[in-house]
Amino acid sequence: MATFGLIEYQDASPQVRAIYDDIMATRKTDWINNFWKAIAHDPALLKRTWESIKQIMAPGALDPLTKELIYIAVSVTNNCNYCIASHTVSARNKGMTDAMFAELQAVVGIANETNRLSSGYQVEIDDAFKTPLKG
Question: For 96-128, b where at least 16 C-beta lie within 10 A, e where not — what string?
Answer without folding.
Answer: beeeeeeebeeebeeeeeeeeeeeeeeeeeeee
